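User: I'll paste a sequence; please echo it back and then give the predicted structure.

Assistant: Echoing your sequence first, then the prediction.
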Amino acid sequence: MSKPLTSKLMPENDALDYLLNHCETLQKTLKVPLEQAVGRYLAEDIVATVYVPPWDNSAMDGYAINTGCLEERSSPKVALSVSQRIPAGKSPEALQTGTAARIFTGAPVPEGSDAVVIQENCNLKSDAESVVEVPVDVKKGANIRRKGEDIKPGDLLLKQGTRLRPQEMGLLASIGFGEVLVYRKLKVAVLSSGDELVDPALMLDRALAPGQIFNSNRFTLAGLIDAMGFEWVDCGIVADDPDASEAALKSAAIKADCVICTGGVSVGEEDHIKAALEKLGRLDIWKLAIKPGKPLAFGFIGNNSEDKSNEQESETPFFGLPGNPAAVLITFCVFVRPYLIKRSGGQANLPLMITAKAGFDRFNKGLRKEYLRARLEVEKGGGQTVKIYSNQSSGMLSSACWANGYVPIKPGQKISSGDIIEFLPMSEWLA
């Protein structure tokens, strides 16, 4: 494997390409009941074997007729005897010539009929509801859903790697799937590096000591991983110590399919995670041309433990994210998220951008691509304007709570108020 590690800052696209080109999908699959499949990734193509709808059926409540009986009528409406009643789930008889059949939404249309007249356009002519008056301008095929109009046998409906959302679950049910073959859930280990970190649960009745801070990154990552449908493995806080860092990485690599650590990968004297990774395995990526998030490390931890299961690979991928909270969120979404999707069998597609009017001025004079925390707002006239948070510091996590998206701005790019710019909705990353 060629290593792109250099002293230069790696551009975002180069880093992402490298990550995805060196990502192996876990191959273990299992069948799960359809009701438990939401958020899982398909391990096979889904090809239809049935028709949907399975027969011609009524799209509305009304009356099934043959339009031939309406031809050459001089009056705008014609009275027809009601020969049968067809609720959904009932197999109808053939339509008697010159009659109408009372029919309900979803019910099979009777043989001999070629249109359904919606009940709002009909008038009953007797108290016994045995005669109905219908308009003569009904078009052939009106309000009939044809057999196989949606799905036909042989149609490729879903590709391997598709993430199952509620609509895909409904689609699978519509073709008779009660269970589905999916990749197993990814296990992602999360650990945090830093003597200053404290778990909030341990400090409910106590104040922080001087120099201590609450470990927010643990919960940000837990939420991100859980929202993706993966299992997160809590590996706790790692002390700023070489031996402790090495032991923590070894332990995490055995427990999970990917390891994520926040902090400890920069150039400080107390940043020991990077050195531990290089000792246990290898470092492939370090320092990216992105802001916030320059000190991001990617590599592999070697697995030499006798305790590893048969599924455990010889190497476990590792991401070392920055310690600053806003940088953790950005680097996870830009780099870790697509990697985890591909590793779990999914399709790592780029997020969709929209365009809107800038409501700010900004010039990126640096050498790194910036992701500005921003909010898209709807104007009174219906237009959309993007505003950015006043403080773009990588330590300001509150800015990400205010924002509903990001504005990517390239090195040397200038944005002036009123310009049409790209906006990346946060929902593209957090859904």
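Residues 1 and 409 are 32 Å apart (CA to CA). The radius of gyration is 30 Å.
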